[in-house]
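hey team, just a heads up i'm posting the complex here instead of the shared drive bc the drive is being weird again. everything in one block, sequence lines first with there labels, then the predicted structure for the whole assembly after. its two chains so it's a bit long, scroll down
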Amino acid sequence: MDKNDQIQNMTETVAKFIKYFGKILPDDVQAKLKELSDAETSPMAKLTYETMFKNQELAKELDRPCCQDTGVIQFFARVGTKFPLIDELSKIFEEGVLLATEMAPLRHNSVQTFDEYNTGTNVGYRTPSIDFEIVPNSDELDVDIYMAGGGCTLPGKAMVLMPGAGYEAVTKFVLDQMTSYGLNACPPLLVGVGVATSVETAAMLSKKALMRKIGSRNPNEKAAMMELELERGINAIGLGPQGFSGENSVMGVHIENAARHPSTIGVAVNTGCWSHRRGNIVFHSDLSYTITSHKEAEL
Amino acid sequence: MKKVLTTPVSDEDLKDIHAGDVIYLNGHIVTCRDVAHRRLIEYGRELPVDVKGGAIFHAGPIVRKVADDKYEMVSVGPTTSMRMEKFEKDFIEQTGVKVIVGKGGMGQDTVDGCVEHKAIHCVFPAGNAVLAATEVEEIERAEWMDLGMPETLWLCRIKEFGPLVVSIDTHGENLFEKNKVLFNKRKDEQYEEIIKKVKFIK
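-- predicted structure starts here --
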């Protein structure tokens, strides 16, 4: 296969995968929703989960995006310095989004700021958003692709706290977002928290926290304990599915952290809705691929 | 037993419906959101669809053209109703709409409008866009198409459209506001619990 064919193939794979995970939720999310549904006791919460599961069946059967808001596509790539198409990757992601917009079809969600018009393609200035981490001496590409609708993007918030306020203030910051905005962001939510120095370092970590598999824990013992505490606490608020009230509120709380400046604690929160449409795909050096987020995926 | 309302809806039909009930809708619903509300209330333009006794849907769908002037509903889900709060009381008064469907709760002005003119606000569980689309039998008309696909008024004939969770009833009950009080109380309790365990800065 010559290089152009390789690029074409990989672009099509990216597009097909976007279409696929825009319709079928990842295995960990499906399992968690089932678990949360089983724990509900009120007729309204039960009916809401039944409606959600019925919608997912219909999306699969009718081959349509499961939610009408297919987001602005985001890529979080860990790319090996020896990955053969490293120079072409940004182009491949962008073309993949263009193609997926027609194939899926995706809703047109890229509005050029200031000029205020919708490009109609989901490609605009600096969108799709692409984040690269370089992996030395690897020949693979490991990428999380994500679509978040406007509803669950809205609760996003970041600020810088004074160290005197401590992790107690981090707790308050997260909890307050749950009952003000989280309620309307289509619970059960996946909550990502970033703890670092500044707004942008914390914010990026809070989004990357949403890429982690549900149930995975921060390697730091204290951070992991705080994840569990926040999970327990937010669940006890009992937002229930769609905020109608119920036994639980979240699919999980994930914290990602970085060391901080001695004078600041940067904190950010990001939420994913119940329809948490993310996929993980690993491209090997021969450009074959492995999908890790959806075991039964066939593109 | 499923509680099914059929448009046109009368005051009498809504009398025994309470916040927290689950209902379904037969007849017609028209998508109607930000700019349509603004045109009617702020610019005084007449709504091109008569919704007296009818239903509106705060939603921006994905619609597919199947023939000249013929469209098919691909995917339609509710959008945040609170954005229409500014207009809804006047909207209810001027149009005589009886059922408003959207996402999340609405505020006190809408509650006042619902009590005064006998109307209800309901929530279609969000993220269930394919299910909602399959409950649309036909798009009968499209008006104000100059607003683009999400904002066009799509007049839909619907069959057992739902489940719709009643969030505001004609008696002034507001499900979301009631829940919020409870949620905030529990949140404060949880905060006190958690902070005991996260005193990492010593």
